[in-house]
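re: that chain from earlier
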Amino acid sequence: MSARDLIDPEMRAALDAMLEAIPGGYNSIPDIVKRREVSEQLAAARRLPPSPGIAISERTVPGPVGAPDITLRIYRPEAVPGPRPGIYFIHGGDAQRAARRHRRVSGVPARP
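^ sequence. v structure.
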């Protein structure tokens, strides 16, 4: 059994497509600038489904002293007025590609 056999079969197609586009994967590109360029090209080619009923906005808040400001992306249901509970999500990795525009919620609201 190989490590590939341990991957969820539904995820293998996406992994195979990435490995076809980038033989050896992202780690085969040693230059971080080139790695980010390749990531941008792949993201531009991928069409994300629309998120009906979800308003997406960005807000900038002050960063730590001496550090740059931090941009927050806010997803809010359009049909639900007033204050709502929220989820604070921090993606703590992926410095090799680092582009928040590649991340997006599905836009499918949770059902109680």
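Residues 1-47 form one domain.
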